[in-house]
Every structure is written in structure tokens, then in C-alpha cells.
Write a structure and sequence with these properties.
single chain, about 210 residues, alpha+beta, 4-stranded antiparallel beta sheet, about 45% helix, about 20% strand
Length: about 210
């Protein structure tokens, strides 16, 4: 159930009626750092929400699947401090920020749902940081593969271009340990090893590992 489903019917219907359905190709941009207002509901696909550091490195703070809404925090305290990128081809619903804000100011039930959603995103962001620091190896490997695959050209397959040595260094583990995890992921049909990289066959399955 999305946050929209938990809003009063009159508010929900008004917001949906004023929304726009948009399709996005894998690895294109949905939300950019610094945008003032953008509220999106993921209808289909997998979205990566991340923050880019000054030196160009990217830190993923959350993964959003169908039913998840992103952007309430930027509506309340603009501009957006995060970017969003579809890992797979995705369909999103663009919600009208001004109407959502007006409804939240007028109806406590709408404001409460938005507060719940902001708290939900805070919990997801903290969970991602804990994963980076203390997560199990399978989760760290899955995370890094998805992040690197998102850098592949948008008109090609999802391929994380790296060697097992590179991956081991990135996740702070030994090469044999990483090789065992990759074998488990291959056996599950989530990835396939290729020359010079790893093909992501089931990105949603990898996201579940995280």
C-alpha cells in the first residue's frame, strides 16, 4: 500500500486526477540533486535513491519499488538533497507538489500520512548506512553490483564492469569469499559472469538481498 492509499479518499482522488504518468528508461535520471520539488510514486520498476559526494562518488540511501513515494522531504524542505535513477525501465506517477502541500495544510489526516512516509525514508536511509558499515557480505556484494551496473549505458544491458579482485576491494572482503557469493547469486539466476564484468539478470532479486 502506498502513502496515497492511506490518505482520505477525497484527497487521494484529487491528487491522482492532477498527476501525470511518466515512463523512464533504465539508468536515466528521474530526480536530480538540487531540484526544488518533485514527488514521485513508483508504479513499476526499481528506483535507486542516492547522494553524490563532492568528489563524484555515489552513496545509495534507499531502493524504491512499486508503491513507494519519494519526494515528500524535498517538498517540506527544498531543494532535494538526493537524486533518483531507475535501475530497470520504470513507470512513475508524478504527483503535483502544490496540491499535495495544500491538502496537507488543510487536512490533518493527509499531513499525518506524509509524516509517516518521511519517517519511513529516514529509517531506510539509516538501514542503508548500517548495511555499509556492518552488513553481511552477500548484501554488500549485491549493493555494489547494482550501483556499478547503474553506470552502464542506458541503451545496453545492466553490466557491472569490474573484476572479482575489484569487487573484493570495494566490499572489503577476500577474493575467495566474493567468489562464493557470486556463485550463490549465479545459482539463483540473479547474475551471470561475463568477460570483464557481471551481467545483472534479476535486479529486483538483488535488491531483496539488500
Amino acid at each position: 500500500m502506498s502513502a496515497l492509499a492511506r490518505m482520505p479518499a477525497t484527497a487521494r482522488d484529487a491528487i491522482v486526477a492532477a498527476s501525470t504518468v511518466v515512463s523512464h528508461r533504465s539508468r536515466t535520471s528521474v530526480v536530480r540533486f538540487g531540484e526544488t520539488e518533485r514527488i514521485i510514486l513508483v508504479v513499476r520498476g526499481l528506483i535507486r535513491v542516492y547522494r553524490t559526494t563532492i568528489d563524484g562518488r555515489e552513496l545509495t540511501v534507499a531502493w524504491a519499488g512499486p508503491g513507494v513515494i519519494a519526494g515528500f522531504a524535498a517538498m517540506l524542505l527544498p531543494p532535494s538533497h538526493f537524486s533518483a535513477q531507475p535501475v530497470t525501465d520504470a513507470v512513475i506517477l508524478d504527483l503535483p507538489p502544490s496540491l499535495v502541500r495544500d491538502r496537507a495544510k488543510a487536512e490533518a489526516a493527509v499531513a499525518w500520512v506524509i509524516a509517516e512516509e518521511v519517517a519511513f525514508w529516514l529509517q531506510k536511509a539509516v538501514a542503508e548506512m548500517v548495511l555499509y558499515a556492518y552488513g553481511d557480505l552477500r548484501s554488500r556484494v549485491s549493493q555494489r553490483l547494482l550501483e556499478l551496473a547503474c553506470k552502464a549505458p542506458a541503451d545496453g544491458p545492466l553490466i557491472a564492469q569490474l573484476t572479482q579482485d575489484d569487487l573484493a576491494l570495494a566490499v572489503g572482503a577476500t577474493r575467495p569469499a566474493v567468489a562464493r557469493v557470486l556463485k550463490e547469486l549465479r545459482d539463483a539466476g540473479s547474475v551471470r559472469s561475463m568477460y570483464g564484468g557481471v551481467l545483472i539478470q534479476r535486479p529486483e532479486a538483488l535488491a531483496k538481498q539488500i
